[in-house]
Specification:
The protein is an alpha+beta fold. 34% of the residues lie in helices and 20% in strands. Strand 3 and strand 4 form a beta hairpin.
């Protein structure tokens, strides 16, 4: 007779059979336990990804392929919901050492006070 009753980490019911190091009473409890952990991580990543996608859409709307040197006011970007704290990566150009901040394939850089240049990566 076993004196140390093993309890399921998910439902706290006793584990009746199986290996001594078994942590869950069945496969369903094991999946539920791990899905709870993943759900909280997924929610946070989804929030960030939604902001990044929105930033990309704003940059895409404001990008003018006929005039890549055009400058966009910061206020216009903010009115469309752009959040400057969220981006995917930063690239520094080799020739002029311009630093572009990217949201996926669209980037921007400050050129003048509160005015930005928007580019599309190739």
């Amino acid at each position: 007779m076993e004196t140390n009753a093993r309890l399921c980490l998910n439902c706290s019911k006793p584990i009746k059979n199986g290996r001594q190091d078994r942590k869950f009473c069945d496969e369903g409890c094991k999946n539920e336990f791990h899905n709870k952990i993943k759900l909280s991580e997924y929610k946070e990543m989804k929030k960030v990804d939604l902001v990044l996608k929105k930033n990309r859409r704003v940059l895409k709307r404001l990008f003018n392929p006929k005039n890549e040197k055009a400058l966009i006011e910061k206020e216009r970007m903010l009115k469309q919901g752009f959040e400057f704290d969220y981006h995917t990566h930063i690239i520094v150009t080799k020739i002029y050492s311009n630093e572009f901040t990217f949201c996926y394939d669209y980037g921007y850089r400050p050129v003048e006070k509160d005015r930005y240049q928007i580019i599309k990566a190739f």
